[in-house]
Structures are given as structure tokens and as C-alpha cells.
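Question (not urgent): is this output format expected?
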Amino acid sequence: MATRLPAAALRVSLTKPWLHLKVFASAPLNYLSRVPEHYKKFYWEWKCTQMSPVHYIPKPGNFEKLPTGEVVPVQNVPLLLRIPKELHQGIWGGEAIIRGFQKRKETIRRVPHYWVPSIKMSVVYSEILDRYMRLHVTDRTLKLIDEKYGFDNYILQTPPVDLMSELALRLRREMLLTLVRETLYPDNPAKKQEILEKYKDHIIPEEEADWYGLSLKEAADKQKLIEEEANRPQPLKHSFRAEFIEYLMNKQHESETEKLEGQSGAGWLSRVNPFAKK
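Got this back:
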């Protein structure tokens, strides 16, 4: 039997997820090493998890029998995709550019060839954002939107690795923030409650929604601003002013307490003293 690597090992050698995890190294000056854990989880789901098969048909089962009678493991190895910058400016539905070879004639050597998805401009509507958007999409994107019964369901229910596009993730972040902050439909309370009830399963804490969908550079810049704000030196006059105000409030409270005790004591003595004026 021929020696073959397991499918998982082949995939690791192809996608190299350790290259993505290396950015979260615990270097003292590396802001990415101190980002929240939920952002690291999102980034792993975006860059290092298995994509849904789009450009190939996976074989079922764990083993297959060749025509020669040899039984070999089934290896569903994903194709290497070329992701151009234009992909992040639209939503391609998991499609990308494939580089390979094509044999156009039997008597001519095969030649390099690129398979590029067909991109078109289309208008989509988000009922959470209450906005129409003109986007570069593919036929598969429109098909998936129809299968999910709406653009919002497609963006919110599709895993980040299948969305691929930074634009799609920014829209998802905006939708999550809109839901958790309840800023949608300010002039229509009935519609607002209807949308919140419809998408209640996608409401997450605001802290997580605020980090969701950020690129590595955006996450590093955000963490840098947070640390600079926390470590910014404060003038001592602010702390002295706060301590002085607290001291005055305590003294006022003590004086009021003594005054009340004095009044209550005088009333008791006036009732007991027979020589007190009635």
C-alpha cells in the first residue's frame, strides 16, 4: 500500500495555521498578545477552520477501493485558493481564484490557467440596518442568500471562514452592535421589537460584538488605544480634588448626625427635667 499522509496533516501543511497563531505570541510589545480571548477565538474560526467545500465534491466515507483492488484512505484535500484584495471589497460566497493547469489539446502540453468566479453587481437589503447596498457578488452568493431567507440571516448564520470577505465581517459586526445596542428603527418601536425578537439568538455581549470582525491591524490598534488610555498619567489635582470632596461630604454627614443626636437628647432631658419650661 502506498504511503499517504492523513488528510488533517495535509491540510495543516497547506494552510499553515501556525503562521496565523504566531501573531499572538507573548512578546512584551506585541499588542496582539493581549487582545481578548473571544477575539482570538473569532480569528481562529476565520482563518484556521475547515471551509465548506465549494470547488470540489468531497468523497464520503473513510476508505475507498481503487480499480486495482487496493484500499486506500479517502483524502478530501481542499484546493489552494488565491484570495485577491478585490475579494474583501465584495461578498463572493466562498468562491475565490483557483490556479492550475489546463490541457486544451491532446497533442499540446498543458498550460497554466486561472479559474476566476463570475462577479456581478447586485443590490441587497438588510432589515437590521434598514439599508440597501450595492455589492459585488457571485451567483452562489445570491443562491445562499435565498437559501437563508434573507441577507441578514446569511451574514449572521454563515461561519466566518465561509464568509471570507472583510466587508462581510464588517457588516456582521455592525449588525451585532445594532442588535445589542438596540439602535435600530428609532422612529418605529413596533418594528424594532419585531426585529429584536426575530434575531434574538444572535445578540451577544457588546464587548464581544465590538471586537468581532476586526482585522489584525485593527485589533492591534484598538488594544493599543485601550492600554494607552488606561496608562495615561492623571494630574494629582484630580485625585486631591476627589479626596477633598469626599472629606467634606464625610464631615457634613458627621455634623448632621451629631446635630440629630443633640436634638434627640435635648428632647429626652426636657421631658425628664421637672424644672424645664413646658
